[in-house]
UniProtKB/TrEMBL annotation:
Record's bilayer topology term: Multi-pass membrane protein
Protein name per Swiss-Prot or TrEMBL: MFS transporter
Transmembrane residue ranges: 12-30, 36-61, 68-88, 94-113, 217-242, 254-271, 278-294, 300-324, 336-359, 389-409
Annotated Gene3D superfamilies: MFS general substrate transporter like domains
Domain of life: Bacteria
Pfam families linked: MFS_1
Places the protein is found: Cell membrane
Domain Major facilitator superfamily (MFS) profile: from-to ranges: 3-414
Keywords: Cell membrane, Membrane, Transmembrane, Transmembrane helix, Transport
Length: 426
């Protein structure tokens, strides 16, 4: 656990730095362009290359030294930040250099993520997976909890260049922690000849599709990502219809503490069994709380339901994470995590692509004052701006509960844990 904690501290610092840069970049692009579309493009460029290249990073994580890949990914991701910094410093600042810089960084993060997740399996015993997953989520969520606050303070007295410098400086801490752990862990020798990305990605996919439990779990998590994409995208316009931007910012920050609460509870409890049952219960709870956010225009109730929704997410992520780890052999975990990343997060991409159109042109008009649902459902959840989004969140929350019950009542996911414990024949 000591080696894991050393790496975790480095990744926590790196996550805070990355979150500060993400916050500053969104403000910088908006101040330059006044365009929310360009801000969303910057966010997409910082996200999409990592997802698309994660299968390649996964293959490399299974073939080569995972700690070395983490060091390379961290080191070369700095190039993108340096490119943005130099562009601004030399008077060439603009939206295009930001787009190029965040894309470069995202490409190299694709090396880091699968290697980092596989390293957890290298360093820990099965009994420690749940606690480690909770800690990993705390580090990942720090970019939402800590980074905006720190970046906001810095931007009030300085500019984006200061934040870029601080983020680049975190590289020395993260690489040092990884290097110190790497010296204490023998490198597993693998056959590095005849490297064929396509065949090895195919092997990773086969590891997923050959196990009905794993493939069912991934399908379920893709649906969860799809539903989460709705609440992530639509919460802001729904709240801005009844409150101001300051209130929205406070609500989002407070709601994010739900993830921290859930992660801390998991770290304390160190769950060792009952993963499939906890997964289903957490999914049902998350679906209920998502639906409840759409039923009211009371900002305090919305915030309360959001906190509960986000509290359930770490339990979902942890149980899914552990169930995969105990089923997939360690030598395949890099490429499997790479494939899981792209397969599940397709749900986010699809949600981002359709939810705005549905809100503006389908559900929104239904619950305007003269809409077709104004005299029925509108009497219960209200009518006007944002109420169509509320209806969408109610529907997606209900669908999350339905799919949780469908997958939970089936045998495939429940037997993943039973087979590992030797309770049924594999």
């Amino acid at each position: 656990m000591k080696n894991f904690m050393t790496i975790w501290i480095g990744e926590l610092i790196s996550s805070i730095g990355s979150g500060m840069t993400g916050f500053a970049v969104s403000i910088y692009v908006y101040q330059l362009s006044g365009s929310a579309t360009l801000v969303s493009i910057a966010a997409l460029l910082a996200f999409l290359p990592t997802i698309l290249l994660s299968p390649v990073g996964g293959v490399l994580a299974d073939r080569y030294d995972r700690r070395l890949l983490m060091m390379v990914g961290d080191s070369f991701s700095v190039i993108g930040l340096l490119f943005i910094f130099i562009s601004i410093q030399t008077g060439q600042g603009g939206v295009l250099p930001v787009f190029i810089g965040v894309t470069i960084s995202s490409v190299f993060v694709a090396l880091l993520e699968p290697a980092y997740r596989s390293t957890v399996t290298d360093l820990l015993s099965e009994e420690e997976y749940a606690r480690a997953s909770g800690l990993v989520q705390i580090a990942a969520n720090s970019k939402y909890l800590i980074s905006p606050f720190i970046a906001g303070l810095i931007l009030s007295v300085s500019d984006i260049k200061t934040i870029l410098i601080l983020d680049m400086a975190t590289f020395f801490v993260t690489v040092s922690t990884i290097a110190s752990v790497r010296k204490n862990i023998p490198v597993v020798k693998t056959n590095q000849s005849n490297l064929n990305f396509f065949s090895e990605i195919k092997e990773g996919m086969k590891s997923i599709t050959s196990d009905k439990g794993v493939s069912s779990l991934i399908a379920l998590m893709a649906l969860v990502c799809f539903f989460m994409g709705f609440i992530q995208t639509l919460m802001a316009p729904m709240v801005l219809a009844i409150a101001d931007a300051k209130t929205l910012g406070i609500m989002e920050s407070v709601s994010a503490f739900g993830m921290l609460i859930g992660s801390i509870v998991i770290g304390i409890l160190n769950i060792k069994k009952g993963y499939s049952r906890i997964l289903v219960i957490s999914l049902i709870a998350a679906g209920i709380f998502m639906a409840l956010t759409g039923t009211t225009t009371n900002i305090w109730l919305i915030m309360f339901f959001c906190i509960l929704f986000f509290t359930a997410l770490p339990f979902i992520n942890t149980c899914a994470d552990v169930l995969v780890r105990i089923k997939i052999p360690n030598e395949f975990q890099g490429r499997v995590w790479g494939m899981i990343s792209i397969l599940t997060q397709i749900g986010f991409i699809v949600a981002y692509a359709i939810c705005g159109v549905l809100a503006d042109y389908v559900f929104g008009p239904m619950l305007m004052e003269n809409g077709i649902l104004a005299g029925s459902l509108g009497r219960i959840i209200g009518t006007g701006e944002g109420r169509g989004i509320g209806f969408m969140l109610i529907i997606t929350g209900i669908l999350m509960v339905v799919f949780a019950l469908i997958f939970g009542l089936g045998k495939s996911i429940r037997e993943m844990e039973m087979i590992t414990n030797g309770l049924v024949n594999s």
